[in-house]
Amino acid sequence: PEHNNNQDNKTTSSTQHSRGVRACVRDFDKGDLVESNTGEVESWQAPLSPFYLPHRCCARGTMSSIIEDTVLREEAVLARVKAAATMILDEYLMCESSLDAALYVQDLRAPQYHGALIKRLLTTAMDKAPALHDKACTLVSSLCVRGVVESKDVEAGVEMLMTSLPDLEKDVPKAVEYAASFLAHFLEDKILPETFVHSLHLVAGKELGGKIKDKVAGLVSLPLGVTTTKAKIRVVLMDYFAHASLEATLKDVAELEGQRPGQELVKRVLVMGLEKKNRDKELASVLLSGLTTVYGSEQFYEGFTRVLAEVDDLA
To answer: pTM score > 0.85 for this model?
Structure first.
């Protein structure tokens, strides 16, 4: 206030400015507000830098140096998150430890930038061999299942990925195809709602959004990697409950590649154990014990967590 110059009020004013800037930075980073060539705010144009507005205000002298320091700190946090995302993905592709990845994300202590983290994970994956894309998506799903990131963070990250596709295509010609496969995976894994597909024209523009939607429709109708894995698991479990041969089943399980089958197997055995009666319940318990010789605690944790997340629907 112009008529009050005491230090306490100045401190309060700075605090309110700081909170306002932080809120502005976070909202812009989600890609909620963007500016078109005409200066109008639209939802589908390329997003502004999250620090565009605060820097403009500081340059015009409408914000103090204290606020500019806050902006610079936020920029540093965002840069650290993006750098960490690349390392997290590289380490996960080597050891497939979702627990280590989850702990690393928690150590960042920057939940306001989880959307940017997801986007960087996916854009980094685009530079990898297509065979590794499914593992990158599994990492994102695991982070969500473990509660380290929320589904809204994945949605925000995918939205930012979609809005940046025109620029990404310059360096990655198949960026649209890869983005569609990521989206199809998250839909199949129930990390993103199906309604997300219907809003693609708002996120990526009418033409590009239409292309992505068509590609996703084609992918969903085909057997995705995660869909194929689930189908193989169903066959293995049906054979187990029909013949009750633990040794043969564990041999079949060992032939399944990657860590994702472990999570899905634990989940499916738990669900089937709940649905079945008497002898089959005991068979499910025996199989769970046997799976400990094939998979570690991470797969059991995520399998149980996936069941708990669906317990209302199961009931």
So the answer is: no
| Residue length of the chain | 315
Q: Which residue has the tokens 């500016």?
A: 35
Runs of H (alpha helix) within the chain:
7-29, 52-59, 65-95, 98-108, 114-126, 133-145, 151-163, 165-171, 175-188, 195-198, 200-204, 206-220, 225-243, 246-254, 260-275, 278-291, 297-309, 311-314
Express as a percent the part of the chain with pLDDT over 70: 77
d(CA 4, CA 6): 6
Chain segment 88-98, per-residue pLDDT in tens: 999 999 998 99
Q: Using alpha carbons only, how large is the chain's radius of gyration in Å?
A: 23
Q: What is the pLDDT of residues 14-71, one digit of tens each?
A: 556 556 655 555 554 444 444 444 444 443 333 445 555 555 555 555 555 666 677 7
Q: Which residues of 104-136 are buried (b: 16+ CB within 10 A; e: fewer)?
A: bbeebebebbbbbbbbbbbbbbbeeeeeebbbb
**Phi/psi at 45 (nearest 5 deg)?**
-75, 170
pLDDT, mean over the chain: 81
42 forms beta bridges with 34
| Cα 265 from chain centre | 22
Using alpha carbons, list the distances in angstroms from residue 289 to 20, 272, 286: 53, 15, 5
Q: If you search the block for the tokens 């570690």, which residue do you land on?
A: 296
CA dihedral 131, 134, 139, 142 (to 10 degrees): -150
Give long-range contacts, CB 8 A cutoff, 24+ apart: 19-24: 21/54, 21/63, 21/67, 21/70, 21/71, 21/74, 22/70, 22/74, 22/112, 24/53, 24/54
Residue recorded with tokens 């925000």: 156
C-beta separation of 132 from 93 below 8 A: yes
